[in-house]
Amino acid sequence: MRETGQTVVANMMRTDTVNLGSMMIMVADMIPPSAGTWLCHCHVNNHFEGGMYARFTVTP
Ligand SMILES: [Cu+2]
Question: Is residue 25 part of a domain?
């Protein structure tokens, strides 16, 4: 999943993309730098087309 315009810390590394295989989960920490509505999505095209994305809103 990618947090467009945001970065996370996962496995002690700052990144904007986290690679996950089937049936995997990962915990990532994020401190959003600004308020707004953002998109979090999968980079696998058929997953994205199948709805593997979400918006999230950061309030001030
Ligand atoms: Cu996917």
Answer: no
Domain count of the fold of the chain: 1
User: Domain span at residue 35?
Assistant: 1-14+31-60
Whether the CB-CB separation of 37 and 54 falls below 8 Å is answered with: no
CA of residue 31 to ligand 1 center, whole Å: 23
pLDDT at 2 over 80: no
CA dihedral 1→9→34→54, nearest 10 degrees, is 20
Instruction: Say how many Å lie between the CA of residue 13 and the centre of ligand 1.
Output: 21
N- to C-terminal Cα separation, the chain: 24
Each residue of 7-22: pLDDT tens digit?
899 999 999 899 988 8
Euclidean distance between CA atoms 27 and 29, whole angstroms: 7
